[in-house]
Write a structure and sequence with these properties.
Helices cover 32% and strands 20% of the residues. The protein is of the alpha/beta class. Helix 4 links the parallel strand 3 and strand 4 (93-96). The longest helix is centred in the middle third of the chain and has 15 residues, at 149-163.
Length: 345
């Protein structure tokens, strides 16, 4: 059995426990907390009652290092760097669900997170954990930077089209709508029921921290610097992200080549499904699952390309993808513990 510790006790940590409780090769040896030390995890998340009745403990790294082969870090930005640095030096593989190892440029990280990165050397070493693009690199990594939820949907929808040179790198618009769990479990006036119910709003307009992450990976796919317009929105639902991306076909490209590039990229992928022509994804179709649904429309008259993706923000957008990366790190079936379809209706 592979011994696993989870550092953090928020929504993504709970979803990790939900998924890993079904993993035949994993034993969860510790879940850590700051505010809930001494409580049982099932007291915080009654849905886990009888599955993982583990008692939450402090993050004592000396103790954790004796109990772990791998660590999942489900922490706010800025907290993972010193922990990861100490754990990897002890031979423990780390999957960081936070933002500390996603951006390769320390200056971009500093600009968007208002922090100096404490270990630029580890930042350069970390592998961006989008398995459909970096599968081979993940397999040999010590540190996996689990992608953000918005970037997962946007990158998977657009990267194949940029990599094949079918769409222009200019004027790309990414419009995303997320459920409220994307804000985490911490108390905030902006996510209280009365503040979000029966409402719909944009936020982080022009400066959301996931924009440079999306640009970084789309630039890598295109082989040139990509700048996008990204606007996230908050929808009064618990979980899910629907992303609609707009781009322009390059001159001479046929509409069928757009769908062909997506189908060729993802035809053999377990978790990414390109939907039939005329069918566009809904978040409920991937609810609670590690699947990505992609729909595409191409206007032959003006060359406008519309790519729509749906993911569950807590699963493929966070914890499910983290387990997918974990499976790759340890040479396991990539889909272990992730095979369940979405909950529907």
């Amino acid at each position: 059995m592979i011994r696993v510790v989870i550092i953090g006790d928020g929504y993504t940590a709970a979803d990790l426990v939900r998924i890993l409780s079904l993993h035949e090769k994993v034993r969860i040896t510790a879940v850590t907390s700051v505010e809930n030390v001494g409580a049982k995890l099932s007291e915080l998340y009654p849905s886990l009652t009888g599955l993982v009745d583990i008692t939450l403990q402090e993050t004592d790294l000396d103790q954790l290092k004796t109990r772990a082969d791998a660590a999942f870090l489900a922490l706010p930005h800025g907290l993972s760097v010193p922990i990861v640095a100490e754990l990897v030096e002890s031979g423990i593989k780390c999957v960081d669900l936070g933002a500390d190892f996603r951006l390769k440029d320390v200056e971009v990280y500093k600009k968007h997170y208002q922090l100096e990165h404490g270990r630029p050397d580890l930042l350069r070493e970390a592998v961006y954990g989008l398995p459909e693009i970096y599968r081979q690199e993940v397999k040999t990594a010590r540190i996996v930077a689990n992608p953000g939820c918005y970037p997962t949907g946007a990158i998977l929808g657009l990267a194949p089209l940029l990599r094949t040179g079918l769409i222009s790198s200019k004027g790309i618009i990414v419009d995303s709508k997320s459920g409220v769990t994307g804000a985490g479990r911490g108390l905030s006036r902006n996510t209280h029921f009365c503040e979000v119910n029966e409402g719909f709003k944009a936020y982080g307009v022009g400066n959301h921290r996931h924009a440079p992450e999306i640009e970084q990976e789309l630039s890598a796919a295109a082989g040139e610097k990509i700048s996008i317009t990204f606007t996230p929105h908050l929808v009064p639902m618990s979980r899910g992200i629907l992303t609609t991306a707009y781009a322009e076909m390059k001159p001479g490209v046929r509409p069928d080549e757009i769908r062909g590039a997506l189908e060729e990229s993802y035809g053999s992928e377990r978790f990414v499904k390109v939907l039939p022509a005329g069918t566009y994804p809904q978040t409920r179709w991937v609810y609670g699952s590690n699947y990505v649904h992609i729909g595409v429309f191409v206007n032959p008259d003006d060359g406008r390309v519309i790519v729509i993706t749906a993911i569950d923000n807590l699963t493929k957008g966070a914890s499910g993808q983290a387990v997918q990366n974990f499976n790759l790190l340890f040479g396991l079936d990539e889909a272990e513990a992730l095979k369940a379809p979405a909950i529907y209706p």
